[in-house]
Amino acid sequence: MTDTTSTAPRPWIKSYPEGIDWQNGIVTTPVHEQFLASCAKMGDVTAIDFLGATTSYRELSTKVNALAGALQKELGIKKGDRVALLLPNTPYYVIAYMAVLRTGATVVNCNPLYSLHELTHIVSNAGADVMITLDLKVTFDNAEKLVAQGHIKKLIVAHFPDVLPGLKKFLFKLVKRKDLAHPTRSPAAGAVIGFADLIAKNAAPAPVEIDAEKDVAVQQYTGGTTGIPKGAMLSHANIAANMSQIDKWGDGLFYPPSKILAVLPFFHIFAMTVCMNVPLCSGAQVIMFPRFEMKTFLATLKRTRANVLPAVPTLLHALATKPEATPELLSSIEVAISGGAGLPNETRDAFALKSKALLAEGYGLTETSPVVACAALRKPSKRGSIGLPLPGTDVRFVSLEDPETEVPLGERGELAVKGPQVMLGYYENEEATREVFTANGYLRTADVGYMDEDGYLFLVDRIKDLIICSGFNVYPRAIEDAIYRHPAVDETNVIGVKDDYRGEAPIAYVKLKQGETLDEDTLMAFLKEQLSKLEMPREIIFRDELPKTMIGKLSKKDLREDYERTKGK
Predict the structure, then answer these.
(1) Whole-angstrom distance, CA of residue 167 vs CA of residue 174
(2) Contacts made by residues 439-442, CB under 8 angstroms, sequence distance 24+
(3) Three-state SS for 38?
(4) What φ, ψ does residue 565 adopt, rounded to 5°?
(5) Which CA distances in Å does 2 have to 203, 250, 365, 385?
(6) Alpha carbons 566 and 569: distance in angstroms, whole number
(7) Which one of 159, 455, 467, 525 is most buried, counting C-beta atoms within 10 A?
(8) Does residue 395 belong to any structural domain of this protein?
(9) Which pLDDT tens digits describe the chain residue by residue (569 residues)?
(10) Are 325 and 355 contacting, i.e. CB atoms less than 8 angstroms apart?
């Protein structure tokens, strides 16, 4: 927890927008309790718009309670059990998530695009022997294999077409039948239970006493870019506190009549909190997409006139550069919140030419539920900054050589965080938990940056992405920013590779804008005016597409593997 009685200087407080208090009013009521209270208040008001099919708050609460009761009575789910969700964005996700929390069990989020190996590690490590999924082949095929392996004992399967609006439901069954699995004819059929069948039992859930500070609500696995994914244990209080911090920072932004665009997947911590939990507990409407498709997104935006867009930089880049995303279609967006990766200035500037929305960059990580800092959501902040620490959040920058030593304002160091949103620790991994916390309880983020005299935070790069050239620190983001300044460049990603002379050297991957041509020599000549000799890439590799993660972040992990496979031998 944050020590609000500390006398340590907090320079960011003087830069807070008027009316936002750093110290008081953080709410830690469990999210499912807040959600059900919101449902009782909002009644027949639309909570979710999923491709045109609407669900009211009343309908959601009825299904959440019915599923929670069935999980308890039919499957024996109890407080402390782990239940895995292998679901893309659909109303089923919201119902399953809230129902699991209502039983006192812990949600274990699983990315539907994870490999079977990754899913096996997560469910076995968590001890989740019940999984909730869809009858789409993309999700069910791996779920079926987890049953065959003996990891999953019961598989609750929802019928995807049932959540589509009438015409889309008919067309899906007619045209896309090949995308549907057949759970009842599966080798795993004996473990399969219908989602709708459980709801239909209309079982009343038994009350469960929750210790918000100690009981784990969500066990969220890190992406695994530095090794085997670890399960960050987020308590009910952690998640609720971050919701409260975002609510205070938003200054009414997430309340009716706001409509929040949920393009990012809920199984990712950013979307789970910002796109789902915060607006639904505030009575706002969530405009939900199963995945990002430009045509569907723009048509939905035109129909709903939604005004809040949480996004990753690659999504903002697409909206800024694709001609079909016209200023008129984007005109309803009042606030866009960028997270998940650093926001290039070129993307920020290009988006500003298309949209008058306030574009605020935020920052967080899985271990902090996730938001640590954000630019103001009602007025512009300092360019290039990730904003100010959220209410109740303490931050400091510590030495890269000695994490117990704080560095002065303006000096680069590793960002460390303390606050009520910081995780309890990693599941069954005491060593990793000890390593990630300083002696005085600050979480080490592995992000390098600095704080200015006004308390604004600036990030330079990830420690694990840092390139050590001839003993000097070289930051991939600085190289990427320089490459983005060339008008022919659409996307770029820089990694470090072994170098016999310098120890490590930067390698730049580049995707060009459609119709543009550029060669390595020309781009190198351009960069000589932008970068030092140490920062100059050893090689520039042009690709038609650059690999991205499920949430849309450019993936350095995939590029490292690609380089090792093609050139590292």
Answers:
(1) 11
(2) 439/404, 440/404, 442/394, 442/396, 442/398, 442/416, 442/417, 442/418
(3) helix
(4) -70, -40
(5) 40, 20, 17, 23
(6) 7
(7) 467
(8) no
(9) 445 444 468 999 999 999 999 998 999 999 999 999 999 999 999 999 999 999 999 999 999 999 999 999 999 999 999 999 999 999 999 999 999 999 999 999 999 988 888 899 999 999 999 999 999 999 999 999 999 999 999 999 999 999 999 888 888 887 888 999 999 999 999 999 999 999 999 999 999 999 999 999 999 998 643 457 899 999 999 999 999 999 999 999 999 999 999 999 999 999 999 999 999 999 999 999 999 999 999 999 999 999 999 999 989 999 999 999 999 999 999 999 999 888 888 899 999 999 999 999 999 999 999 999 999 999 999 999 999 999 999 999 999 999 999 999 999 999 999 999 999 999 999 999 999 999 999 999 999 999 999 999 999 888 888 898 877 788 899 999 999 999 999 999 999 998 877 788 999 999 999 999 999 999 999 999 899 888 999 999 999 999 998 788 899 989 999 998 888 65
(10) no
Cis peptide before 257 (omega within 30 of 0): yes
Which pair of tokens denotes residue 261?
């665009």
Chosen domain end from 221, 236, 259: 221
Which CATH number is 141's domain given? 3.40.50.12780
How buried is 71 (Cβ within 10 angstroms: 0-12 exposed, 13-18 middle, 19+ buried)? Answer: buried
**CA atoms of 102 and 100, how far apart (whole Å):** 5
DSSP assignment of 227-239, as one string? SS--EEEEEHHHH
Backbone angles phi, psi at 399, to 5 degrees: -60, 140
Task: Count other Cβ atoms within 10 Å, centred on residue 148.
Answer: 13
Q: Measured between alpha carbons, how far apart are the two ends of the chain, in Å?
A: 48
On whether residue 201 sits in a domain, the answer given is yes
Which range marks the domain in which residue 125 is found? Answer: 31-221
Strand order in the sheet with 413-418: 394-398, 413-418, 443-451, 457-462
> What is the number of residues in the chain?
569
CA distances from 424 to 209, 274, 368, 369, 385 (A): 19, 21, 10, 11, 28
CA 449, CA 441: separation in Å to the nearest integer?
20
CA distance 221 to 498: 29
C-alpha 331: how far from chain center: 25
Pairing of strands 285-288, 308-311: unpaired
Comparing C-alpha atoms, which of 354, 375, 366, 559 is closest to residue 454?
Answer: 375
Two tokens, residue 282: 């505030």
Residue listed under structure tokens 């008008």:
487
Domain boundary, last residue among 164, 194, 221? 221
481 assigned to some structural domain: yes
259 belongs to a structural domain: no
CATH number at residue 553: 3.30.300.30
Cβ atoms of residues 263 and 292 within 8 Å: yes
